[in-house]
């Protein structure tokens, strides 16, 4: 861990290193949902970098995706949304009677809506 609370998992994801990321997760050498000093998890970094394969890998190993799913639906990123839904297509992540599909339709993000309905 560095002075910004970045773990080796954060660094592996940031550099796009799938083999190292997979090794760390498989051996349980890092907690998948640990945030750094800025509050970013490995999954949020993978999403920022548009690393869809790493997103799927992190989701497979239990990365928390609820807030990120809402965010990426809201900014109309269908590829990221699809990767976040890789393991579980559950879209009824209620937020005051709204779910990601409601957000997508409300903001005319039809490509995201299509992904959510696949």
Automatic annotation (TrEMBL):
Q: Do the record's keywords include Repeat?
A: yes
Instruction: Tell me what this protein is called.
Output: Ankyrin repeat protein
Q: Do you know which PANTHER family this protein is assigned to? A: ANKYRIN REPEAT AND PROTEIN KINASE DOMAIN-CONTAINING PROTEIN, ANKYRIN REPEAT-CONTAINING PROTEIN-RELATED
What are the protein's UniProt keywords?
ANK repeat, Repeat
Q: Which Pfam families match?
A: Ank_2 (PF12796)
Q: Which InterPro entries match?
A: Ankyrin_rpt, Ankyrin_rpt-contain_sf
Is the keyword Repeat assigned to this protein?
yes
What is the organism of origin for this protein? Vannella robusta
Q: Which domain of life is it from?
A: Eukaryota
The ANK repeats are at 38-64, 96-118
- SMART domains this protein is in? ANK
């Amino acid at each position: 861990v560095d002075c910004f609370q970045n773990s080796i998992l954060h660094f592996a994801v940031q550099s796009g290193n799938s083999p190292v990321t997979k090794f760390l997760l498989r051996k349980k050498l890092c907690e998948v949902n640990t945030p750094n000093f800025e509050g970013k998890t490995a999954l949020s970094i993978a999403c920022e970098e548009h690393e869809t394969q790493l997103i799927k890998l992190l989701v497979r190993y239990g990365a928390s995706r609820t807030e990120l799913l809402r965010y990426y639906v809201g900014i109309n990123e269908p590829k990221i949304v699809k990767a976040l839904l890789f393991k579980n297509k559950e879209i009824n992540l209620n937020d005051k009677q709204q779910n990601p599909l409601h957000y997508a339709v409300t903001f005319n993000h039809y490509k995201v809506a299509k992904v959510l309905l696949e």
